[in-house]
Input
Amino acid sequence: MNILVVYKKNFESVHDTGLMEVKEALSRTSSPTDRVDFKPREHVRRADFIARDLVIVFGGDGTLTSLSHNIDASTPVMGVNSHPRSEDPSGSFGFYMDSSIGTFEADVRTVIAGKAIVNELPRLHAIIDSTSGNRFTTDPAMNDLLIANTHQYAPSKYHLRRGDQQCLQQSSGLLFSTWFGQGAWLRNAMSDDEFNTLRSTVKEGDVDSHYFVLARDIPPSERKHQSWSWADWTGASTTITSDMHRGYVVPDGWDEVHFNRGATITVNAEAPPLRLLTFRTTLMEKLRELEASE
Output
């Protein structure tokens, strides 16, 4: 196997200790013909992810989301929580990180045996058509994607279109979220009642093709007039034409992609999915358990 281990590097001893245990476990489970490379998150490049049989991400959800845009749809990814909250209140919850130091060696053996659970996570992307005629696509986002004015003190102005529905709108930005990414930002940007009303429109089987969209800080009168343009769960592409001097698209809170007035940005959930491995339950079941405990 050709394995890449990317790890979170900081000054907390718990991460260094855990990384040593990961290295020891891989030395016991790998064969002499296997290739295992270790890279800190700050030094890894997109080329490091090419032709890998497995990518192991050692850290928390933020470590995974910061790296996921480098990983193609055919490469399985294993998340290992380096500092679980279940063992330390100051640790990471790690929704996507189904493995930990305590289970890592057994989980790796499960991967090698081909018995891990494969979760195909939908991802968002934005297609930007500039006024000069150039087209480019942003990196895929596994949690959320923001379109906003680069000057956060100024409103985001744009023409919003979905199918034959359209309107001129200004807000503090459009936030798009996958089903699994709902807890990252979307739920914190809405009241519980608003979110539960929106989530009640979700139909079984739509998770892979649909996404949430929220226009932040829209006045109540505008919400009632055109509810679809304020908050929605949809499988259709959402298109805006920018009326901002300068705006940006930010996938998963990392790289900013800038655009100028007149550019057209189309968002959908048609980016290549991410193959995330779990070992005891599917991510869908895990999310349902969290919802039931609320």
